[in-house]
Design goal:
The protein is of the alpha+beta class. Helices cover about 35% and strands about 15% of the residues. Helix 1 runs antiparallel to helix 2.
Length: about 170
């Protein structure tokens, strides 16, 4: 009954509610949360000690900074008539389910630790792999999923230094 405009309005109202209800204490701003409930999940766990990617987790300050941009980026796809859904974020649960299924049925990457984040039809695959050659294979696997617009693979392979992605550790102030 509401249609696409109602869905966009509901999305914007939800973002405003998150901002209005967030805690006002200074230390709460350092807590990492998946404020927008973006799909984030581990698909492989073959490398011990692989740093856990931060994925969609953010501090309260980061969430506040991103709220407006997320709303704008989410609706742009529909406004430009490149998406049939009123927000590109509405594709994410289906993309995440398809990626889970692809990884579950694929025997490659067993010697890796990998996490997947899906935001507005973009897919991030992050973690540790046995060989750099797997980076291109991971990108191809994610690109087979319908409605995926962009795939970003940030992985490290031995020997390696710091991971090429942000980790779950919150930087000290």
């Amino acid at each position: 009954m509401g249609g696409p405009r109602a869905a966009v309005t509901a999305h914007i109202k939800a973002l405003i509610a998150i901002l209005a209800l967030s805690p006002l204490t200074g230390r709460a701003a350092d807590v990492l949360r998946n404020w927008f409930d973006d799909p984030y999940f581990q698909v492989r766990s073959g490398v011990r000690g692989c740093p856990v990617p931060r994925g969609p987790f953010a501090t309260e300050d980061e969430m506040r900074h991103e709220a407006h941009y997320r709303s704008e980026r989410g609706t742009r796809c529909w406004l430009e008539k490149k998406c049939s859904k009123p927000s590109s974020y509405l594709y994410d649960p289906d993309i995440a389910a398809a990626l889970r299924s692809r990884f579950a049925s694929d025997r490659r990457f067993r010697d890796a630790s990998l996490w997947v984040t899906v935001q507005r039809r973009w897919v991030w695959v992050e973690g540790c792999v046995a060989s750099r050659r797997e980076q291109a294979q991971l990108e191809r696997l994610a690109r087979t999923v319908p409605d995926v617009e962009l795939v970003i693979v940030n992985v490290s392979a031995p020997p390696s230094g710091p991971p090429p992605y942000r980790t779950m550790e919150v930087p000290a102030r």
